[in-house]
UniProtKB/TrEMBL annotation, chain B:
Record flagged with keyword Signal: yes
Keywords: Signal
Record Gene3D superfamilies: 3.40.50.2300
Protein name (record): BMP family ABC transporter substrate-binding protein
InterPro entries documented for this protein: ABC-Purine-Binding, Peripla_BP_I, PnrA-like
Gene source species: Neorhizobium phenanthreniclasticum
ABC transporter substrate-binding protein PnrA-like domain boundaries: 27-309
Length: 304, 357
C-alpha cells in the first residue's frame, strides 16, 4: 500500500518539480515567464506526436524538450529583444500554447499512447521498502532528481551560476561588469522552456500516456507558484513539489479509504498547505528578500 | 489565474466567431457552449458529435458556431451573453454548471431561445434537456456485480450534484439487485476534466482494492489506468473502447444529435416551446456501447435489462429502497418521482462514502 501511494505521488510530483526548476533558473536570471503552462502543453503535444510518429518514447522526450525550448524563444524574442512587458507576454504565451497545441494535437486525439518504459537500476532496486519504488522509475524521475542536484550546484557553486544570479539581482551592475545580460537571459529562458517541455512530455508519455487538449490542466501555474513557495531554492522546489503531490494524492486515498471528511475540504488541502508554508517562509522577511531576484520582471535595455 | 486565461482565450475565440458570422446572414445561428474541449473523448465530444450531425442535417439553413473550454462560474455568463449578442437564434449550454448563467442571460435576451443541458431551471425562452443516464448506470451496476470478484467497485465522481449522486445510486441499486452485499467506494475528483487527477483517483481506488472502475468525469485517463492495472472498467459519455480494448465492459454513450435536430427544426418552423425534456434509453438519447469483455450470460442479462428499461417494465428507482442510513425511502413497488431524482442529495443503502454536502 505504502509503495503504491509513493509511486502515484512520484508520478504526480515529477512534472511539477521539473517545470518549477526550469522557471527557477529563468527567474534567477531576472526574467519572469508566466508562460509555463503554455510551454508545458507544447512540450506535451510535441512529445506525444513525436512518440506516435517514430514509435520511440525517448525521441518523444527529446521532442518535448525541444518543443518547449523553441516555444520559449518566442517569449525571449518579445521580452528580451523587443523589451515587451514580461507579465503580458507570459500570459499570451500560455494562451497561444494552449490553442496551438490543440491544433497540432488534433490528429492525435484518442490514439492510445506509448508509455516511457521504466529503467530498473540493478542492486539499488533491491533495497527493501523504497528500492523498488525509487530505482525502477522512468527517465523523467531520474532527470528531475539530477536537475535538482545539478541546478543547485550550478547556481550556487559555479562561476556561470554566480553570473546568472548577479544578472537577476542587478542587471545594470552585471552589464557594467561586462556580462552579456541579454544572451545569458536568452539561455535561461530557453532552459526554462526546455524544462517545461520535459514536464509536458512526462504528462503525455508517463503520467497519462495520451493526448487530450488542455491536459496540463493548470499544472504550469502550480509550478510557477512553487518557485515562490521554494523562495528560489532548488531543494525547496523538490520538497514543495512532493508536498503538493503527496497531499493531492493522499486526499484521494483518504477518500477511497473512507475517512469521512468532506471531499471539497480534502481537495483544497494542497492549496491550504501551500499557503501555510508560504506564511511560515515569509515570516522572516530578510531571508525572503535575500533569495528574491531583485530585478525580477524588470526590462533591461543595454547602453542606456 | 487559470480561469482568467481561459476567459481571455474564450473572448479571443468569440472575436473570431464574429468575423465568420457576418458572411452568411440568411443562415440562422444555432450556437453551442462547451465546458471542455470538443476532442476530450467524453462528455463534450459527445455534444460536438451531436452538433456535427445537426449541421449535416440542416446544412443549408443553419450554421453552428461553438465555444469550447468555457469554465463554469462567472465567466460562463459572459461567454453565453456574447454568444447571444453575436446573433445566435438559439444557444445550447451543455453543462450543469452553466445553469444560473443561462437563466440570467435568457432574461436579458427574450428573443433568443436557450436550451440548458441537465439543469432544472427554466423560463419561457429557456428549455432544459437531459438524458436518463441513470438507466445506463443501473445496467452497469448489474454487470459490475456479476464481474467483480470482490463485490467492490470504485466510482470516480466529479461534483456532488444531483446528476452525479443519482448515477452513483443507480449503479449501487443495479449491483445490489444481483449481489445484495455489493459495496461501492466513491472518490470525488472535484473536477470534470483533469486527466492526471482522474488517473490518480483511479490508482487510489485500485490500490484500495476495487476490481471494477466506473467514472463520471470526462477523459479516458481512468480507463487507461484500469487497462494498465488489468482490471475492468466502464466508459463514460463516449465509447472509450480505444483506450481499453480489453478493459471496457460497456459505456454510456450520449447521442444528442437527434435531439438537436428535432429542436432546431422546431425553431425553424416556429413551433419551439420551452419544455423540460428528460429522455432515456427508449428515445435513443443515450445508448449502451457494445457489451464486451464479459461472458455471454452476463451480456444476455445486460441486454435483457436494457430491453426492460426501454419497454418501461423496469424503473431502476423502484422500491423498496432505503436511504444510506437505513431509513425507508421508497415503499415496495413505489417509483421515484422525477422531481426527487433531479434534486437527489442523498445516497441509497450500500454506498460506502459520506456524501459531501
Amino acid at each position: 500500500m505504502f509503495e503504491a501511494i509513493l509511486l502515484t505521488v512520484i508520478t504526480a510530483s515529477t512534472p511539477l518539480v521539473i517545470a518549477s526548476l526550469g522557471e527557477l533558473v529563468t527567474e534567477r536570471a531576472g526574467v519572469l515567464n508566466l508562460g509555463v503552462e503554455g510551454m508545458m502543453i507544447m512540450g506535451a503535444v510535441c512529445a506525444f506526436a513525436a512518440a506516435q510518429l517514430t514509435g520511440s518514447p525517448h525521441l518523444g522526450i527529446l521532442a518535448g524538450i525541444l518543443g518547449g525550448a523553441i516555444f520559449s524563444l518566442l517569449f525571449g524574442f518579445l521580452t528580451l529583444t523587443l523589451v515587451a512587458n514580461q507579465v503580458a507576454t507570459g500570459l499570451a504565451l500560455t494562451i497561444l500554447g494552449l490553442g496551438l497545441s490543440g491544433q497540432i494535437g488534433e490528429a492525435f486525439v484518442g490514439q492510445p499512447g506509448v508509455k516511457l518504459p521504466p529503467i530498473v537500476i540493478p542492486l539499488l532496486s533491491d533495497i527493501p521498502f523504497v528500492g523498488r519504488v525509487l530505482f525502477s522509475q522512468d527517465l523523467t524521475f531520474y532527470l528531475s532528481i539530477a536537475l535538482v542536484i545539478g541546478i543547485n550546484w550550478f547556481l550556487f557553486r559555479s562561476r556561470t551560476g554566480l553570473k546568472i544570479r548577479a544578472i537577476g539581482d542587478s542587471h545594470a551592475s552585471a552589464h557594467a561588469l561586462g556580462i552579456n545580460v541579454i544572451r545569458t537571459r536568452y539561455l535561461a529562458v530557453m532552459f526554462g522552456g526546455a524544462c517545461a517541455g520535459l514536464a509536458g512530455a512526462q504528462l503525455s508519455l508517463v503520467y497519462t500516456p495520451q493526448w487530450v487538449e488542455n491536459m496540463s490542466a493548470g499544472r504550469g501555474w502550480i509550478a510557477l507558484a512553487l518557485v515562490v513557495f521554494a523562495s528560489w531554492r532548488p531543494w525547496r522546489v523538490l520538497a514543495g513539489g512532493y508536498l503538493f503531490g503527496a497531499v493531492g494524492v493522499g486526499q484521494l486515498h483518504a477518500q477511497a479509504f473512507g475517512v469521512g471528511l468532506p471531499s471539497q475540504l480534502l481537495s483544497a488541502l494542497p492549496y491550504a498547505a501551500t499557503i501555510v508554508v508560504l506564511i511560515i517562509i515569509s515570516h522572516n522577511r530578510r531571508t525572503t528578500l535575500i533569495n528574491t531576484p531583485a530585478s525580477l520582471g524588470k526590462p533591461f535595455v543595454p547602453d542606456r | 489565474m487559470k480561469k482568467l486565461i481561459i476567459a481571455l482565450a474564450a473572448s479571443a475565440a468569440l472575436l473570431g466567431g464574429f468575423s465568420t458570422g457576418a458572411q452568411a446572414q440568411e443562415k440562422k445561428k444555432v450556437c453551442f457552449i462547451y465546458v471542455g474541449s470538443k476532442t476530450d473523448g467524453g462528455w463534450t465530444q459527445a455534444h460536438d458529435l451531436g452538433r456535427q450531425e445537426l449541421q449535416k442535417a440542416l446544412d443549408d439553413k443553419i450554421e453552428t458556431p461553438f465555444l469550447e473550454n468555457v469554465p463554469e462560474g462567472p465567466d460562463a455568463e459572459r461567454a453565453i451573453e456574447r454568444m447571444a449578442r453575436s446573433g445566435c437564434a438559439m444557444v445550447f449550454t451543455t453543462s450543469f454548471g452553466f445553469m444560473d448563467a443561462t437563466v440570467k442571460v435568457a432574461q436579458k435576451f427574450p428573443d433568443v431561445k436557450f436550451e440548458h443541458a441537465t439543469g432544472f431551471k427554466s423560463a419561457p425562452n429557456l428549455a432544459t434537456y437531459n438524458s436518463r443516464f441513470y438507466e445506463g448506470r443501473y445496467i452497469q451496476g448489474q454487470i459490475a456485480a456479476k464481474m467483480s470478484k470482490k463485490g467492490l467497485a470504485g466510482y470516480i465522481a466529479s461534483f456532488p450534484i444531483p446528476e452525479v449522486v443519482m448515477g452513483i445510486n443507480a449503479f449501487e441499486l443495479g449491483a445490489k439487485s444481483i449481489n445484495p452485499n455489493f459495496k461501492l467506494k466513491v472518490v470525488w475528483a472535484n473536477t470534470w476534466f483533469d486527466p492526471g487527477k482522474e488517473a490518480d483517483a483511479a490508482k487510489a481506488l485500485i490500490d484500495q482494492g476495487v476490481d471494477i472502475l466506473t467514472q463520471h468525469t470526462d477523459t479516458t485517463a481512468p480507463m487507461q489506468v484500469a487497462a494498465e492495472r488489468g482490471i475492468l472498467a466502464f466508459g463514460q459519455a463516449s465509447d472509450m473502447i480505444a483506450a481499453g480494448p480489453k478493459t471496457q465492459l460497456t459505456a454510456i454513450v450520449d447521442t444528442w444529435g437527434a435531439y438537436y435536430i428535432k429542436r432546431t427544426k422546431a425553431l425553424l418552423d416556429g413551433t419551439w416551446k420551452s419544455e423540460q425534456i428528460w429522455d432515456g434509453l427508449k428515445d435513443g438519447i443515450l445508448t449502451m456501447a457494445p457489451y464486451t469483455n464479459m461472458p455471454d450470460d452476463v451480456k444476455a442479462m445486460a441486454e435483457e435489462t436494457e430491453a426492460k428499461i426501454k419497454s418501461g417494465e423496469l424503473h431502476p428507482f423502484t422500491g423498496p429502497i432505503n436511504k444510506q442510513d437505513g431509513t425507508a425511502w421508497l415503499a415496495a413497488g413505489e417509483k421515484a418521482q422525477d422531481g426527487v431524482l433531479l434534486g437527489m442529495n442523498f445516497y441509497v443503502e450500500g454506498v460506502d462514502d459520506k456524501l459531501p454536502q
